[in-house]
Structures are given as structure tokens and as C-alpha cells.
Specification:
Layout (H helix, E strand, L loop, with lengths): L36 E4 L5 H13 L4 E3 L11 H4 L9 E4 L2 E4 L1 H11 L9 H34 L8 H24 L10 H10 L13 H11 L2 H4 L6 H5 L3
Amino acid sequence: MLAGWISGLASGGHSRRIKFQRSPRAIIIPAGALAMLILYGSPFSSRVNKLRYIANHIGLDYEHVPLSPLKGETRTPEYLRIHPAGKIPAMVDDDFALFESMAIARYLASKAASPIYPQELRARAIVDQWCEFVTHHVEGGMLKVFFNRVMIPLFKLPVEVDTRSEQDGLAWLDRYLPIIEGQLGEHAHVAGEALTLADFALLAALDPAEVASVDLTTYPSLTNWRGRMRDEPFYAACYSRYSDIVDAFR
């Protein structure tokens, strides 16, 4: 049982500097904490930030523990008990562990009985449809561009920029963002007229656009929707803009 070794968790839905019971390379549980819901992962990660947006929006009390895969912090025996592949994000809720970002997103929304993940069968299927579309096509393309244009030079990673991968990512965005633009031209939100998990998935997926020099202004409906979403309190609870995180490391 996870409860046998998870103790002293912290409350609050914001990232902060945390004092840990272990060395930085073995961090799992923040000392002196109260909340029993913990989200693990780097604030650079769109998949982590998606979960933070959701938790903030639905009012869940949680702790964000900013583990870095680049520093080996997700390869400790403790963390591998939560996510056996040593990836991010992951979640612990009391004695229950879960990984894969969309599984966690659905769990959080269901835990709070939030309408962002509707109960009606077909409405839920539409939300799932757009979440999958965003994850596989939009986020996948942006990550290729972001990794090559930002992550490699910013962290001086021991790999060369893969120009072909970067161009593939741009091609994906050119192919699939017009579909999103069409949807948002007809509806207030990604999966229709109501705010759903699909909106949080898309918002987080596109967060790196500015720092990766991806121009989204050619998509007016998307740009308008994005502006509205970034004005919401759930976003400001994480940062004013995603570029704040990147600029802090420059």
C-alpha cells in the first residue's frame, strides 16, 4: 500500500520551493504537507500543466511536486513505484497512484463530479474524441518543435537538433490546427459550447508556441479562444504566461 510510505503531504494548488525529507535526487514527499493529492512533474511539461489547470479550475486541493526527468528525479525507486516507466506526469491521491495524463485528467474531473467531463454518454465521447485528437496531433507536433528549438539549446542537451523532426512537427501543426480553427470558429469551446477537458488539453499543448516561435495568429478563432482561456483564474494560479517558466532558466 502506498499509504505505508506516503506521509506529511502539503496543501495548496501552486508550485513552490519545497523542503523534502530526502535529497533532491530522491524526492517524493514534501515534508510537513497536508493535501493528500499530489501531482508530479516539471512545469515545462504541457501534460503536467494540463492537470494543474484542471485541478485549479475545479477547486481541488493539491500539491505540485516539480520533478525533473533531466536531473534523474523520476528514476528513483520511490518514484518508480508510482510510475514504472519513470515519466511524467503522475499522481498520488491518498493511497492511489495513477499515471498517463489523460487518465489523470479524467480521474480529477470525475473525483470532483465536474461538468468539464460530462456524464452523458455521447457528450463524454465527444470530449474524449477531441482530447485524443489534441494529444496525438496538436501536442505531438508542438512537442517536436519545442524540443528541438527550445529544450536542446536551453538545457544544453547532448543531442543535435533534429531538423527533420522539427519540420515534421511544423507540418503536423499546419495540417491539424486548421481543423481546430474550424471547430472554434463554430463553437465557443473545443468540444462544443461548454468548457471541457478538451479545452485544457489544447491550451496546455499550445503553451510553448511563443517560446518555440510558432505563429498562431493566422488562426483568429484559436487566438481569440486562447486569449479567453489564459485570462481565467486557473491559468494565473500557475503563471502569467508559460514563457515565465522558460525565461527563468535562460
